[in-house]
Structure formats: structure tokens, C-alpha cells
Design goal:
The structure is a single chain. By secondary structure, the chain is α/β, with parallel strands linked by helices. It has four domains: about 1-55, Phosphorylase Kinase, domain 1 (2-Layer Sandwich), CATH 3.30.200.210; about 65-125 and about 335-450 and about 455-555, Rossmann fold (3-Layer(aba) Sandwich), CATH 3.40.50; about 140-335 and about 565-585, 3-Layer(aba) Sandwich (Dimethylsulfoxide Reductase, domain 2), CATH 3.40.228.10; about 595-725, Barwin-like endoglucanases (Beta Barrel), CATH 2.40.40.20. The chain is built from 26 helices and 28 strands. It has a seven-stranded mixed β-sheet with strand order 5-4-19-18-17-6-7, with helices on one face. Strands 23-27-24-26-25-28 form a six-stranded mixed beta barrel. The chain has a four-stranded parallel β-sheet with strand order 11-10-9-13, with helices on both faces. A hairpin with a 2-residue loop joins strand 2 and strand 3 (about 25-30). The chain is globular and about 70 Å long. The structure holds ligand MGD (2 copies), iron/sulfur cluster and molybdenum atom (MO). One ligand MGD binds near residues 208, 299, 605, 609 and 611. GO terms for molecular function: formate dehydrogenase (NAD+) activity. Belongs to the prokaryotic molybdopterin-containing oxidoreductase family. Pfam families: Molybdop_Fe4S4, Molybdopterin, Molydop_binding. This is Formate dehydrogenase.
Length: about 725
């Protein structure tokens, strides 16, 4: 019998509502949910195409073990988990938790239970080698927040519903559907701004799908720090700053004012590629608009100065009187007490410990994934020896995949939790099959404080797990049981002695025995507790899991966000504008490399409507059509200079590597810039994706610690100097 089940999409941060048609626990079809209060019948093609992933014959549905010949063979869960636990315990006993690592990829953020139990394991084993997609995405935004507000999780959201001017730096929400902001109909929200007489100004080296609909400021790649400093320069120099807001909300403005003084639009024109008059006018418009919001996303994070850029964006909002004010940049209200708990548990850390390679500070307990290969290879205490990779594909998503792939082969143990055999886990000892988001219950945990309209949604699993797939939390829980450790309970605390590991695990086994007699702690229980605790004394509606279950389309928790919250979200209620590391970074900016004759063009990234990072190229519905091929967008003038024609295979070379891709001539990229999507060049266990061809653009990026962004250790993936020639 066919049934209709309401759920929501967990591919991107929009979290659109979906309705699934299910028969005998098989998914037949997904369609938009017209009753979802925010997405109201909208989805993008990927949400619908998740049915292809769910039913994909290439999906891994049974535990796989590497054989001597290098292939995979199917094994039982018990065989796999027993062997993994034994080998992991050996590494732990011999070398401690410091030698065990975990890389979690982007889909982790879309599973509350995965995030939670992974944190439980990190705490239990005292893991230090924790890596994530964040160092290729967003970590410097969290560093900027730590420096500005004293809290990594204080990330302001643009007040789309009320702003008069939205300044958007390096984001393309018409394709990406919004990131660090959850608004499923963001394109309409943007159109509404101009419909009510406001403006949307898109700063981007490419005339993107978003820029084409609004005003476009074609900045040079990696020029944003200079642009923002020039905007501040004009605002201060012309007396346009909101001095009352500055006094009330911040400390240390003089340092910012002094720094901006030397960045006139004329001085920065060679970096920004923009007319000084245009920059001056934009500064005046921002300062005099009734309200203005400053929003940036990956284009603001993936250059050489991403932390500084994030810092300056918030500073600009503040200086123009738009931070924590309606119509400007607002702080969301999380119905779960995650920020408080995270702070108490020490999870929202910055620079608590440094990586061995490059000496990079941790961010939210993670180190830069770009140094992972070198951490595997560099001998000595704390050498990375056993690694888990869950929901990630760093061989494609991190710079220099080949270096990482070969280092992975040197590990004592590599285990992956995934839906597919991808380019990374094809090197693993075990690939453990996990549930898709349609096969698990969930709450959009990473988006709760980023909704422009306060909202929460709980869904049950839509279908039972296919094959032998299991949710990540259960796999982690089973491993803990087998190792005699307890999630969230630091094993080493149980053994204050000279032989910590083994004794600790003996004590841990005793605890495990007790734990087995108690009702099992599950993510659902934790969620229910967090919901109840979240509504105590915080002026938010009272929530329980039972109440969420009564609202299958989700629950709107208020009409909009409000201002006046700095007292809660910033230490001491004020924003710090003179963080010493930012002042140091400003001095580095002055010394930054300029144009490079050997590599005259700059490479940036590009997201496509029907791709999702590296993992949806196996969905046939998304790969149909003539234009579904990988390519390099290049300005016709640059193409002529390089001697390449439309469709011609080209060699793209950087100081670090080279790839071959066909040219697509278009004036949507500014002169001097080429744009290539990431996540292509498949050689995994996927039929359609492998056939799609293309190249791994991250071969052109660097893993040299000296080349990573200084404050957050983020990979530099935009603005890479390159040369193009006929292949
Ligand atoms: N269809 C689709 N949607 C997605 C994804 C996907 O792969 N496909 N991925 C999801 C993920 S993981 C994320 S993090 C979000 C990202 O969400 P967005 O950041 O909104 O997505 P992008 O399309 O990468 O937009 C970044 C923009 O920055 C521009 N840019 C590049 N370099 C610079 C620069 O130096 N300065 C400026 N000002 N701009 C620059 C690029 O041209 C690009 O238009 O999207 C999510 N949504
Ligand atoms: N050049 C360049 N590189 C980039 C970027 C860029 O803009 N330019 N963007 C960066 C960004 S923003 C991101 S987020 C990263 C993404 O980088 P990663 O997170 O490393 O890789 P993904 O391509 O997202 O691969 C996700 C993997 O998770 C699996 N998966 C999907 N759902 C689930 C699930 O529910 N459970 C489990 N266990 N597995 C699942 C998929 O099969 C796939 O193998 O790429 C980064 N790399
Ligand atoms: S926009 Fe994002 S959440 Fe909505 S259907 Fe597409 S992938 Fe899913
Ligand atoms: Mo991302």
C-alpha cells in the first residue's frame, strides 16, 4: 500500500519541506511539501533527486572489508565492528587518543544524531586529530565571531524581511539556496527587497545567477578585504559612521579607524579592480540607507584573508549602525540551548591546542584538513595512525587529493561511514554503510539559530534503513561498547596513572557493564531533554519532542528576529574591534603578493544547481542534459590571450598542480578570472559519476602550511594564481 509521509530535505541549509510516497518501505518519489510554512511548495532539483540516491544501485548497503587484492568483500556487522574495535583499542593502548583521528564531512552537519555521538566519541577518547569540511568552508567565520564577540557561535543573520540594502559578498543563494542563513525561499526574499524599493548589491568576480538579478559589483578575486577597508575608510573619513552605535556597542574602534585610514578606494583599486568612485558611492549608500545588512558566504571565506573579511563585514554593519538592529544583521534565537552547552563542554573552542604540522589553532576542536596528510606522515608523539572519515570525501574536497590518498594508505586503520564508495574511502580498510537522511529521524540542528523566521522541525524516518545500513550514532555506540568506553565519558579520567590507556579501558568496561543495564541513552532522549531545557527562562516557547511530533510540517516560533541582543551574544555586551591578531593580519595584508606574471589569471569556484559538492553526480536525474559536463568559465578576452576556443580542452596550471578541462567562454566572469566547479573528476564506486568525467580542481590548491589562511588555517580555494593554455 502506498503512503504519503511528510519530512524535510537535509541536503542544504534551506531544509525545504518534502512529501515522500512510500510503498512497502521503499521510497517511490519525493515532491515539495505545499504545507511547509517556510518553503511553501518550493524545492530545488536536488531535493527531488534524493530519490535517486535513496534507491541507487551503487549505494553501499552492507559492511565492506578490504581484501588482500585491494577489492572489497562483504562482511557481517559483527565481523567488521569486532575487528575495528580490536585494532582501534590497540592503537589507543599503544599511542593514546592523540593518535586517532576523525574527518567529518558536510552532510554530518545535517544529522543531529551523527554530530552528537561523534562528539561523544571525541570526548570519550580525547581525540585531537579532528578534521572537517569546515576548514574548506566556514571556520574563519567562527574565528571572526570568537574575536568580535568572544563566542564562536555568535553569527549574525541578514534581516532579509526588513532590510533596505543587502550587501552580499561572495554568495550565490539563487543556486546555493543560502548558507549561514536558513530561508528556503531566499530568492523571493531578495526580490521582495527590491520590490519594496530597496537594493541588493552582489560583490562577486562572476556575474552569477544572483548578481544577474540584482546589482553587480565585479570585485577581483580575493579583493574583499581591501574593498571592505575602503568602504570603512570612506565612512570614517566623511563622518558617516554611526558614532552612537559605535559607543554603545563596541570597544577599540580607534584601531579600526586608524587601519582604514590608509585604504582609500584609490589605494585599493588595483586589488579590488573597482572604480574608486563606485566604491565611494557604495560606502555612502550603505551609511545613509534606512537600514543595511552585510552578508557573506564561501566567496568571503575561501581567499587568503577570510577571517579578516568576516571580521570586517560585521564591523561594517556595526559602524553603519546596522548590527543587532532590525533591517540589519540580527542574532538568531536557538530554541535548543546549544550555545550554552557547547560553551560549557568546551566544544566552541578556538586555539585551545595547536596542530603539530603548521602550528594551527583548533577551531571548534578541529584542525585544518589540509594538513591531515602531513599529520599522517610526520613521525613523533601524536602521529595520526588511525582515521575515521564520515560523510566526507576529502580526496576531492581538500587541496592536493593525491597527497592525501597516498598518505591514507600509510595508516594503521582507515574506516569510513558513507553511502557510497567514493574517491576517499576506496582506500579504506572498512566502508560501513550508513542510513540516508530519509532513513533517520532528525532536527535541523545546525540551522536553528540561522533561520530568518524562528523555526523548528522534527521528522521521523521516512523509510526503514535499506539493506544493513545503520545510523552513524549507532555505529559509534556499538564501537564504544566493544572497546569498553562510554560516549561523552572521558576514558582517561577513569585512569589517573602511568598506564592510562589500558587501565582506563578496564574501568571503562566496568562502566559499560553498568551502562548496559540502564535504559540506553539515545539521541532522541538527548533531544527531548535539550528541548525542555532550552525553553527554561529564555523567552522562547516551551518545546518537547512530543509537541514537535504533533507538527509534522514544522513549527514557526515567532514572526521574525529582533535586535537588542548583544548583551546575550557578546561577552560583556560589546563587540571588540581591536583584536590583536586582526591587527597583525592587517599588517600582513599590506605585504600580500600582487600580480604574478607566470600565473596571470585567478581561479575561483563555482556551484551548480544540479551538483552538490562531490556526492550527487551519481543521480541520473541531475546528470541529464547537454550541459552536464565539467568546464572552465573563462572571459573571451582571456581565452583569446591564452589561445583557446570554446569547448577546447585546456591545461590549467598553478604553482601546485595542473588539470585538464574544456573551456566555456563567457563574459560572466570578469577579465583575469576563471571559474571551475569543485567535486568533479570521479573515480569511485559510482557508475554515473565516473562516466561524467571532469577533473578535481583542488589539485590546483596548496596544502603547504605557509599557504593556508593564517588565523583559521583554512584552505585557499579562491583567487589561486593560474595559467591557461591549450591542452
Ligand atoms: N546547488 C548547490 N547548492 C549548494 C551546494 C552545492 O554544491 N550545490 N553546496 C552547499 C554548501 S556545502 C555550501 S557551503 C553553500 C555555499 O553557498 P554560497 O557561498 O552561496 O555558494 P557559492 O555558489 O559557492 O557562492 C560563492 C560565490 O563567491 C564567489 N567568489 C569566489 N571568489 C570570490 C572572492 O574572492 N570574492 C567574492 N566577493 N566572491 C567570490 C563565487 O563566484 C560564488 O558566486 O552552498 C550549499 N548549497
Ligand atoms: N575548490 C573548492 N573546494 C571546495 C569548495 C569550494 O567551494 N571550492 N567547497 C568546500 C565546501 S563548502 C564543502 S562543505 C566541502 C565538502 O566536502 P566533503 O564534506 O568532504 O565532501 P562531500 O562532497 O560533501 O561528500 C560527502 C560524502 O558524504 C556522503 N554522504 C551523504 N549523505 C550522508 C549521510 O547521511 N551519512 C553519511 N555517513 N554519509 C553521507 C556522500 O556519499 C559523500 O561521499 O567541499 C569543499 N571544497
Ligand atoms: S534547496 Fe536545499 S533543502 Fe531545498 S530541496 Fe534543494 S537541496 Fe534540499
Ligand atoms: Mo559547504
Amino acid at each position: 500500500m502506498q503512503t504519503q509521509k511528510v519530512t524535510f530535505c537535509r541536503i542544504c541549509e534551506a531544509h525545504c519541506g518534502l512529501v515522500a510516497t512510500v510503498e512497502d518501505d521503499r521510497l517511490l518519489q519525493l515532491r515539495p511539501d505545499p504545507e511547509h510554512p517556510l518553503s511553501r511548495g518550493f524545492t530545488c532539483p536536488k531535493g527531488i533527486a534524493m530519490a535517486d540516491v535513496q534507491n541507487d544501485p551503487d549505494r553501499v548497503l552492507h559492511p565492506l572489508r578490504r581484501t588482500a587484492s585491494g577489492d572489497f568483500e562483504q562482511v557481517s556487522w559483527d565481523e567488521a565492528l569486532d575487528d575495528i574495535a580490536t585494532r582501534l583499542a590497540r592503537v589507543y593502548d599503544d599511542h593514546g587518543g592523540r593518535s586517532i583521528g576523525w574527518y567529518f564531512g558536510n552532510p554530518t552537519a545535517f544529522s543531529y544524531s551523527h554530530v552528537l555521538w561523534l562528539q561523544g566519541l571525541i570526548m570519550a577518547l580525547g581525540l585531537e586529530h579532528v578534521y572537517s569540511a569546515g576548514s574548506q568552508d566556514v571556520n574563519n567565520r567562527f574565528v571572526a565571531s570568537t574575536l568580535l564577540y568572544g563566542h564562536a557561535a555568535s553569527v549574525p543573520v541578514p534581516d532579509l524581511a526588513r532590510t533596505d540594502l543587502l550587501l552580499m559578498i561572495g554568495a550565490n543563494p539563487v543556486v546555493s539556496h543560502g548558507s549561514l542563513v536558513s530561508a528556503p525561499r531566499m530568492k523571493e526574499d531578495l526580490r521582495a527587497i527590491t520590490a519594496r524599493g530597496g537594493r541588493v548589491v552582489v560583490v562577486d568576480p562572476r556575474r552569477t545567477e544572483t548578481a544577474a538579478l540584482f546589482e553587480h559589483v565585479p570585485v577581483r578575486p580575493d579583493g574583499d578585504a581591501w574593498l571592505l577597508l575602503s568602504l570603512l575608510h570612506v565612512i570614517f573619513a566623511e563622518g558617516l559612521a554611526d558614532e552612537a552605535a559605535i559607543r554603545a556597542q563596541s570597544t577599540g574602534v580607534d584601531a579600526l579607524r586608524d587601519a582604514a585610514a590608509s585604504y582609500s578606494p584609490e589605494m585599493t583599486a588595483s586589488r579590488t579592480g573597482l572604480e574608486p568612485d563606485e566604491v565611494r558611492q557604495l560606502a555612502r549608500d550603505l551609511a545613509t540607507a534606512g537600514s543595511a545588512a552585510v552578508y557573506g558566504r564561501t566567496g568571503s571565506c575561501l581567499g587568503n584573508h577570510g577571517t579578516l573579511v568576516s571580521y570586517l563585514m560585521d564591523a561594517l554593519a556595526l559602524v553603519t549602525g546596522n548590527l543587532d538592529r532590525e533591517g540589519g544583521n540580527l542574532f538568531g534565537r536557538n530554541p535548543l540551548p546549544l550555545e550554552r552547552v557547547g560553551e560549557l563542554a568546551g566544544v566552541l573552542s578556538y586555539d585551545r591546542r595547536r596542530s603539530r604540522v603548521g602550528g594551527f589553532p583548533d577551531i571548534l576542536g578541529t584542525w585544518p584538513a589540509a594538513v591531515m596528510a602531513k599529520e599522517i606522515r610526520q613521525p613523533g608523539a601524536g602521529q595520526l595512525r588511525a582515521l575515521f572519515v564520515s560523510a566526507g570525501n576529502p580526496v576531492l574536497s581538500v587541496p592536493n587529493g593525491p597527497e592525501l590518498a597516498s598518505a591514507l594508505g600509510e595508516l594503521d586503520l582507515l574506516v569510513s561511514l558513507d553511502l557510497y564508495v567514493n574517491e576517499t574511502n576506496k582506500h579504506a580498510d572498512y566502508v560501513l554503510p550508513t542510513t540516508t537522511w530519509l532513513e533517520r529521524e532528525d532536527v535541523p540542528v545546525a540551522s536553528l539559530s540561522l533561520y530568518t523566521v524562528p523555526f523548528i522541525h522534527f521528522t521521523e524516518a521516512t523509510v526503514a534503513p535499506y539493506g544493513e545500513a545503520r545510523p552513524e550514532w549507532r555505529i559509534i555506540d556499538d564501537l564504544c561498547d566493544r572497546m569498553g568506553i562510554t560516549p561523552f565519558a572521558p576514558t582517561r579520567l577513569l585512569s589517573p596513572g602511568p598506564v592510562p590507556a589500558t587501565v582506563g579501558r578496564a574501568a571503562g568496561r566496568a562502566l559499560t557493564a553498568v551502562r548496559r543495564r540502564l535504559p540506553r541513552l539515545t539521541p532522541e532522549r538527548v533531544l527531548d531533554l535539550a528541548l525542555r531545557a532550552g525553553s527554561v527562562g529564555r523567552g522562547v516557547p516551551r518545546l518537547t519532542l512530543a509537541r514537535l511530533r504533533r507538527h509534522p510540517h514544522g513549527l514557526v516560533l515567532g514572526t521574525g528576529l529582533s535586535g537588542g541582543r548583544l548583551g546575550e551574544v557578546a561577552k560583556g555586551g560589546r563587540v571588540r574591534l581591536d583584536a590583536p591578531v586582526i591587527l597583525e593580519e592587517l599588517s600582513r595584508l599590506g605585504a600580500a603578493r600582487g600580480a604574478d606574471e607566470e600565473f596571470p589569471l585567478q581561479l575561483i569556484g563555482l556551484r551548480e544547481l544540479r551538483s552538490h559538492n562531490s556526492w550527487m553526480h551519481n543521480a541520473p536525474t541531475l546528470m541529464k542534459g547537454r550541459n552536464r559536463r565539467h568546464g572552465m568559465r573563462i572571459n573571451p578576452k582571456d581565452a583569446a590571450d591564452a589561445g583557446v576556443a570554446e569547448g577546447q580542452p585546456c591545461r590549467v596550471r598553478s604553482a601546485y598542480g595542473e588539470i585538464e578541462v574544456p573551456a566555456m567562454l563567457t563574459d560572466e566572469v570578469r577579465e583575469g578570472t576563471i571559474a571551475i566547479p569543485h567535486g568533479w573528476g570521479h573515480q569511485g564506486g559510482w557508475t554515473t559519476a565516473n562516466r561524467a568525467g571532469g577533473a578535481n580542481v583542488n589539485l590546483l590548491a596548496s596544502t603547504d602550511p605557509d599557504d593556508l589562511e593564517k588565523l583559521a588555517g583554512m584552505a585557499v580555494l579562491n583567487g589561486i594564481p593560474v595559467r591557461v593554455s591549450p591542452a
